[in-house]
TrEMBL record:
Ranges in coiled-coil conformation: none
Residues annotated as domain Enoyl-CoA hydratase/isomerase: 21-351
Family annotation (InterPro entries): ClpP/crotonase-like_dom_sf, ECH_dom, HIBYL-CoA-H
The protein's name in its UniProt record: 3-hydroxyisobutyryl-CoA hydrolase
Keyword field: Hydrolase
Length: 367
């Protein structure tokens, strides 16, 4: 039987059941936010399972305070990022290098990787699910890349997978940080199927106890459970494409302000985000559209280094996390304070790599 997650067990529970490696994220009090230790546990486990011919595939789920499922992963541990970024803790660098390596491994795993994306799936949670071969959402899924709200950018490969969304949806999700549900995740290519939340436990046990003849049989069992899910954003798609395809952040906001009530609300949202990081993110998505995943992750590794160290004492990320999660005053002091005040030189600096290509921390990633 599957062990019931509890407070005294590891934050990552990994076990082999039948032909599958099965992972439960077990840090429910933090909505399974990823620590450096969790990243290392996941990376080590997946590397071992990738080489083990007896393991046909992997399934991963989250947990909440009541038990399994209910929340997948809310992202990286932002309180750690704030403390490390404020104190010069070198583990900050380790966290991003190893997290991005984990993201790449999942995309290139070579075996079925089935992600049960129930409840909150944000930031780092997207990084450990978007590379999956079967990304399962439910009616409870709340999916987002909300990093601009904390003065960061959609990392963990966000440039790669958001830029592959249809039209200008990637720009919209990256800039606004808006949350979407199951139907829109399917429509935008960010999920492969939806199952009712109440059926997850039964599917999990079926995966653990079935003697699958091959990968095709495994995939067929999962796909047989899929149900339809309605898109909630379809009515706004034309406006998203028109507004978020504009050439600059200022033009995006101007187009939104001249649009529908929904568009004007989006404009107001963007005005609350880090003006500097909005410029960085728009460029990120558009550059990433022409990149493979390894190239995108190397670019994002450059960018995240700059988020903490480019402007000593003036990190938008440290300030954004302070306002949201530390002091919780929800009043970040962005610098520059408005979209119109950001110079090209300020955002362009985020795309200069601090490393020569041969010495980049992610130089070994391929494709």
């Amino acid at each position: 039987m599957t062990p019931t997650p509890s407070a005294d067990m590891s934050d990552v529970i990994a076990e082999v059941r039948g032909k599958l490696g099965m992972i439960t994220l077990n840090r429910p009090k933090a909505l399974n936010a990823l620590s450096l230790g969790m990243v290392r546990d996941l990376l080590g486990t997946l590397l071992a399972w990738q080489k083990d011919d007896s393991i046909l595939g992997v399934a991963i789920r989250g947990s909440n305070k009541e038990g399994v499922f209910g929340a997948f992963c809310a992202g990286g541990d932002i309180r750690f990022l704030h403390a490390a970024g404020s104190s010069g803790n070198p583990q900050l660098e380790d966290f991003f290098t190893e997290e991005y390596a984990l993201n790449h491994l999942i995309h290139s795993f070579g075996k079925p990787y089935i992600a049960f994306m129930d409840g909150i799936v944000m930031g780092g949670g997207m990084g450990i699910s978007q590379g999956g071969s079967l990304r399962i959402v439910t009616e409870r899924t709340k999916m987002a890349m909300p990093e601009t709200a904390i003065g960061l950018f959609p990392d963990v490969g966000g440039g790669y997978f958001l830029s592959r969304c249809p039209g200008a949806v990637g720009e919209w999700l990256a800039l606004s940080g808006d949350t979407i549900g199951a139907g829109d995740a399917l429509a935008f290519g960010l999920a492969d199927g939806c199952i009712p939340a109440a059926q997850q436990a039964d599917l999990w046990e079926t995966l653990a106890t079935t003697d699958f003849a091959n990968v095709e049989a495994l995939n067929a069992v999962v796909r047989s459970r899929f149900v339809s899910a309605e898109s909630k954003v379809a009515a706004h798609r034309a406006e998203i494409d028109t507004c978020f395809s504009q050439p600059t952040v200022a033009a995006v906001v101007q187009a939104l302000q001249a649009g529908s009530d929904w568009a004007q609300t989006e404009a107001a949202t963007l005005r609350k985000r880090s003006p500097l990081m909005l410029h960085v993110v728009l460029e990120q998505i558009r550059r990433a559209r022409q990149m493979n995943l390894a190239e995108d992750l190397r670019m994002e590794r450059d960018m995240v280094r700059h988020c903490f160290y480019l402007r000593p004492g003036r990190s938008e990320t440290v300030e954004g996390i302070r306002a949201l999660a530390v002091d919780k005053d929800h009043s970040p002091r962005w610098n520059p304070a408005s979209i119109e005040e950001v110079s090209d030189a300020e955002w362009q600096a985020f795309f200069d790599s601090p490393w020569p290509a041969h010495s980049h921390p992610l130089a070994a990633l391929q494709g």
